Amino acid sequence: MALAGLTELVREKSTMEELTEEVFIKRARTFFYEVAGVESASLDADTDLIESGVLDSLLLISFLAFIEKLRGSPLDITRENLPAISTLRGAYALVRLRKPDDKLCGSFNGA
């Protein structure tokens, strides 16, 4: 699936339902299936996407674009918050992160 298709998928879905952790994980599983052919059953919320071989350097860029589309703003990727992207639950926390002092993601900001 091209990034244009990804944008359409995110836009379509974002108007239909609130972005809870469960909804994000469902959308991320769909993303990984459509972009990389990864079966959703193999993607637990806490599966390490890097260690399991799901997320490689090229897919990482697409996944970051997916996260930024859901957020509605660019990510400020730092050495401290980069590990969050290795799981769907951690990626959801980055989607929810709005500002450096966000309580939900304080640990990603050194809090």
What structural keywords apply?
111 residues, mainly alpha, Non-ribosomal Peptide Synthetase Peptidyl Carrier Protein, Chain A, 4 helices, 0% strand, disordered C terminus
Write a brief caption for the model.
This protein has 111 residues and is an all-alpha fold.
The CATH class is Mainly Alpha
Which structural class is indicated by helix and strand composition? mainly alpha
Largest sheet: number of strands, sense, barrel closure: none
| Structural domains: how many | 1
Unreliable stretches covering 5 or more consecutive residues: 99-111
* CATH architecture level-2 label: Orthogonal Bundle
Radius of gyration equals 13 Å
CATH topology: Non-ribosomal Peptide Synthetase Peptidyl Carrier Protein, Chain A
Number of helices: 4
Q: Quick one: how many beta strands?
A: 0
Share in helix: 40-55%
Strand content: under 5%
**What is the averaged pLDDT score?**
79
The helix-strand sequence is HHHH
Shape: globular
Distance between the termini: 37 Å
